[in-house]
Design a protein that fits this description.
alpha/beta, 27 helices, about 45% helix
Length: about 750
């Protein structure tokens, strides 16, 4: 009996030792691989070799693929490279899991990639509100995996910063009610962070602060495990606009931003500046630890102010940051007038890192563009960034040739001597994966990329196999809609006419989109037809079906612009029957688009609203978060900010549910008003010609008969009720993507 007990004890000890060995030998990469596919970590051999040179290396060790690198992120980048170009598996936002083959394809010849671009940044402040406002930990976990696979080692990390702010303001004597009027709601925190507005979308409930603090701790723990260096928001002087009166400090009034009250900016020379800055950094560090990088954008989107000592302010901001962490670097956006030359000229080299935010279109670092700085950023280090998307608008878009041209112009360019890496600075994520894949590979390819060759490889990797029709479709897209040319400065994708407030001369949707036609709409239609023609051979392929819906969606949008012009021509030429026919067809196109997008959860409004409501712990919280979600993608603000401020539809979305219940409603209302005018105009014309309702044929009456009165609709009054509604939208897809895509092509072919 005793012998049996001893044997059991030995077995238990051996088992515990094995578990302990497994736990200590497991790496962050093992966890990432297991999240991709259960059992995947056993198919790879992972080797970390710490060193100064950024690299990854692929080779074969027996039956396992060996991936080496000097950091966990670089090893993850190597895994992604292997999956794409050896296994035909493409992981992206629409697909972060895959079924790996039982025996992985062999790496017959070792392959190594190195880069001197050691800093690879991710996120715009806007991304945190336009895409990530309602993310939970499972969604964040997938995003961190995506970042690691794409080489990101320097992500902006602002979740839960409002917790530090609340605690600091409480110590400064602000009440919870006053803080609630200052800190914005979840869908608008980005613009509060950037000193653009106060309070809109709030007040935040206490549970928000508790949950976001816990979420940020999870995010930071995983980022740091993977050798990422999170970028925290630093202190740039922001205070509530009433701080001068309440705290007795010298602060520059923020004025307004598109109708919103802006916060004040504490003068760096004020006697309390160091006290308040140190208070902020201590609280942030207490909550989340130190950071190697702090993001500060003083004077963001504001005019020059004679009161401000820009050089002195920069020195004081840097000094406060250095007291928090002497080794930290200040990260600042290169955007419009910022960073002010007189500020950065006064700062030492090595302490500042500038994000050249829109390098693929309006680079500031020295090459020709409308934002060119002929001397670049002088002595300071900087990153070449791709903005790609504004407002998280849905639409195919890219500047392939311009991106490659601008990137390779940096090579051997004296003004690029201080280039240290790249960055993704999109306002909205989860769109146009081809552009982010291209950008992520640029640091790792020693030779310039040939666009057409690269696209062919991308398509093979994305779908796991080749097809001539699909390759032809993507080659056409790469030459047209994904090749926005130099000189076109539009903000993001060609906007859907469906999403615009109706009018007689509608072109762009957003107030600042700067749209210009640069591709033939027939190109997207041909590409859509090719994709539909090949669809049966890719049935069940998740990446293909996502792209199929996205490309057919774009083709329908582009043809709808043509249909809109027909409707307006009918109206202006007084063709009543043609107007009825063409306006009904346009409305049918909106509903058909809604049905198409409903086949994929990524394009469903319910995915956004369900996530918002899920964060609430009470009915009131759920309503607040859903209201935030609805307002942001429609009116963006109250009446003053939406209309006079021009913010309406800035974050418009081509989503199922929104098309049916919001955009369709606007266009139907407008067309009904137009038709009523045509009827009224017809009766007036009949009267002028001597009909029973007639009067004398005066020149004024003739003029009135020829010209319908202007259409005046209070759009905000029509839109606001939808933002206040609480009807349910589901995130679950409905219908078969291939079947509905065929219906769209059939509809367009019937024209």
């Amino acid at each position: 009996m005793q012998t049996t007990i001893n044997i059991r004890r030995v077995l238990v000890c051996v088992a515990l030792a094995a578990l302990s060995l497994t736990a200590t030998s497991a790496t962050p990469i093992d966890g990432l691989l297991e999240r991709i596919d259960k059992g995947a970590s056993r198919k790879f051999k992972i080797e970390l070799h710490r060193g100064a040179d950024d690299y990854f290396r692929l080779s074969q060790r027996g039956n396992r693929v060996c991936v080496e690198g000097n950091t966990w992120v670089n090893i993850a980048t190597g895994i992604n490279w292997y999956l794409k170009y050896y296994a035909g598996i493409h992981l992206s936002w629409n697909q972060m899991q895959a079924h790996l083959p039982a025996r992985l394809p062999r790496v017959e010849r070792p392959e190594r990639h190195d880069t001197q671009l050691r800093l690879r940044y991710d996120f715009n402040y806007c991304t945190y509100s336009y895409s990530m406002a309602f993310w939970d930990w499972p969604r964040w976990q997938r995003e961190i995996d995506w970042m690691a696979l794409h080489g990101i080692n320097m992500p902006l990390a602002i979740v839960g910063t409002e917790v530090a702010w609340r605690n600091v303001l409480l110590r400064l004597g602000y009440s919870c009610e006053e803080i609630g009027r200052f800190i914005a709601g979840p869908a608008f925190l980005a613009w509060w962070h950037m000193n653009n507005l106060e309070g809109w979308g709030g007040p935040l409930p206490e549970t928000w602060y508790t949950k976001q603090e816990a979420l940020q701790r999870n995010i930071l723990r995983r980022m740091r495990e993977l050798d990422m260096h999170p970028v925290f928001p630093g202190y740039a002087g922001m205070l509530p606009h009433d701080a001068p009166a309440k705290l007795g400090v010298d602060a520059v009034a923020g004025g307004t931003w598109n109708g919103y009250q802006r916060p004040a900016t504490l003068s760096a020379s004020d006697k309390r500046f160091d006290e308040i800055a140190d208070m902020y950094y201590r609280e942030l560090t207490r909550l989340y630890g130190q950071a190697d990088y702090y993001s500060m954008d003083p004077f963001h989107e504001s005019g020059n102010n004679a009161r401000v000592d820009y050089a002195g302010t920069g020195r004081r901001l840097l000094a406060a940051m250095k007291r928090a962490n002497p080794k930290a670097t200040w990260v600042i956006q290169g955007w419009t007038e910022n960073p002010r030359p007189q500020m950065i000229d006064a700062l030492p080299a090595g302490d500042l890192l500038i994000l050249d935010l829109f390098s693929e279109c309006r680079p500031m670092w020295g090459i020709p563009s409308i934002w060119q700085r002929k001397q670049g950023y002088g002595k300071h280090e900087w990153l070449f960034c791709m903005l790609e998307n504004f407002g998280a608008n849905v639409g195919l878009h890219g500047r392939m040739d311009q991106l490659l041209h601008n990137f390779y112009l940096t090579k051997d360019n004296p003004l690029a001597a201080h280039l240290r890496g790249i960055g993704f600075t999109m306002e909205g994520s989860e769109n146009n994966p081809i552009m982010f894949e291209l950008m992520s590979e640029l640091p790792w390819r020693p030779d310039p990329i040939d666009r057409d060759t690269w696209v062919r490889g991308y398509v093979r990797a994305r779908y796991g196999r080749d097809n001539d029709d699909v390759q032809t479709a993507w080659a056409l897209l790469a030459r047209s809609i994904y090749n926005c040319p130099a000189g076109n400065n539009q903000q993001g994708p060609h906007e859907s006419i469906f999403d615009a407030r109706p009018g007689l001369d509608v072109f762009q949707v957003k107030s600042w989109s700067k749209m210009k036609n640069y591709y033939d709409p027939h190109a997207t239609l041909v590409a859509a037809r090719l994709m539909v023609g090949a669809a049966d051979r890719f049935a069940g392929n998740n990446n293909f079906e996502y792209d199929l819906v996205d490309i057919v969606r774009q083709a329908l949008d582009d043809q709808a612009r043509i249909q809109y012009q027909r409707v307006i021509a009918d109206y202006k030429t007084f063709s009543r029957e043609a107007f009825r026919r063409d306006s009904r067809r346009f409305l049918s196109m909106i509903l058909l688009q809604d049905r198409l997008l409903g086949t994929r959860s990524e394009f469903r409004l319910g995915r956004w609203t369900e996530a918002a409501r899920a964060l609430g712990t009470t009915p009131d919280e759920k309503r607040l978060y859903e209201w935030n979600a609805r307002v942001q993608i429609t009116t963006w603000g109250n009446r003053r900010c939406a209309d006079r401020g021009g913010l309406h539809d800035y974050a418009h979305k081509e989503w199922q549910g929104l098309l049916r219940d919001f955009y369709y409603m606007r266009w139907k209302t407008y067309f009904q008003a137009m038709e009523q005018q045509l009827v009224a105009g017809s009766e007036a014309h009949y009267a002028v010609l001597g009909g029973s309702t007639g009067s004398a044929n005066t020149s004024a009456e003739l003029s009135s008969a020829r010209t319908a009165p202007s259409l005046t609709i209070d759009w905000y009054a029509l839109e606001e009720p939808w933002t206040l509604a609480t009807n349910t939208y589901s995130a679950q897809p409905e219908g078969e993507p291939i079947e509905v895509a065929r219906d769209v092509i059939s509809f367009l072919s019937s024209d």
